[in-house]
């Protein structure tokens, strides 16, 4: 107490020369005697009033005096020092007065302390309250700040409620108990009533929480709730605040059953539900509606993509992210298939159409299967999967390759005019860098079964890397389109020959395995220093070892096997779509590693592509008749090797000469997507045949630039009409200036309406701008802001819509752009 008395007196003497101290209970003598303030003379009233008055006012008019009376303050008529006392200050040394003095509050705030003594019995709470009190605070303001201290909040009533909701979710009630002990309960519930309209006969916080969830849901639906729109605003802020996310999720899950939300959402429309995320049941119902509409093709692809993008703002999006992505890719598949004209006038035309647009159908199908598998919700997506699978197999994969089969049936030799052949890759691509006036070093990455559409996605991922650029062109693989022949064709080659066991020789040397391939690679340009190795071995090198590899070699071939090693096994073939995703990540990492080792010319290609159908195949998907011939030496699902093979109605025969091969072995390729019957091997992931998916393979050329080339899209605020807010909510349009591309990446902004002093007066939104459309209208984002009661304090003033961007992963935000409005509205707060 001595420290508090010392502090209280010090504050009074900062403003007054004379301070009176009445010891009404006659229990403060010891504290008075202990007081020792520099420059302050202690005197005592003991029937010496006239002498003291003369000394203080005449003899020592500049000296500071602490005037102590052992007893209560006399009545005004009997107080001979009353005039001096009224002109100076009185120090009250009881506990309440000390606390009041410590807070720096005037005497009229005495009830704020005396009526809530329990609150002040903690020095920590007093210190916390001191930090929150503002000079202009009224009694009610101080009481609200006391509520904040009780629950550990830092702001106004809404933050108190948010903290209590968090404690409720954690099954704690320490904040409410302290409010009750501090005699603040009546004040708290009066504040809740005035702010949010909650006024039951016996208020209870959990009842308030349940009512808050229910009312916010109903008001958002455009219906009447028991609480007002200010409650909805507070609820939105809390729900969207990452600090309250866990508590919101827990309480929402608990109250969902109590409020029978599952049953309620089934009677709602998709339009009503799509902007809401108050309960997890909303997301499940939105998904069910989308699946049903997509399965029956009663919703446009554009709407599906828009809705799935909107749902990213949902609290539950992370739980259902893979389902939403599966739906978006399914919609893109449906749209791409609907727009495709699966006809071709020549083999070259077929390749051109596949490499420019048709590949997107394969890609969307693969991405749909991938996210469906990851979601673990195969049953929920079952009807949609059946629809997508049937259309992919029948309307695309079979249809396009039947048309393609008609074209290649006319070919006498395996060559597509206008497109590079795989067996010319080394001469046309790799050696090109060595033939320059100043020969450059080059690295070739051969990724086993890197289908063209997978390479296109890889292209986009690489182009997202700062200072990296890439271009993709199609190349025609050798036939049969299988690993041993494709790998050999990518090397310097001469007299490519398929052996009876399916192996391949070149320059009369085996091409199987990395060691043999390095030997064949040495048959290339004379004087070039060649190296072949697996990508895993390269990725394990230290930086200095990678640079030494660059220094000591001119041509490096790296072999990457992520897709084929998974797809070619019966037990794992259904995971090939996951392997494709992993392959893309691998290759992006590999490119970065190579450039750090000084390699700047990078080629990525494949030995072959593949066909993949997720559903188990039907008997009709296999060739009708077993092939015959003089000698059948080797067979798999998509080709057969032998001598004197007979062409059948379901298979096309190629001589080695027609395929550009040496030797005397004939090749049979099943028409279109048919498979041969082979015991024990997988049938969903296959290659070796002549479909577009198998033979159109990528050449991905990667280079690195000197300058930074990655930026973010720009966003503008578009306001039509006058920049005036006259109601409880206002609508604006935010416009994304450029479409998102590999080099123009998305931008995430926080948006809200603020007063001049930075006070937030609306709800706050976190918005992702990642529109890819070239159509300007499709890059507009309409958004509504709901004003809070706090806005009333700034009526008839200028306020600002501000967009801010998070700085890295910190809690700080940089201003991005803003627009000034004039706030001029009535006091009717209920906007619904």
From TrEMBL:
It holds the Pfam family PglZ. This is Uncharacterized protein (TIGR02687 family). Residues 570-597 form a coiled coil. Keywords: Coiled coil.
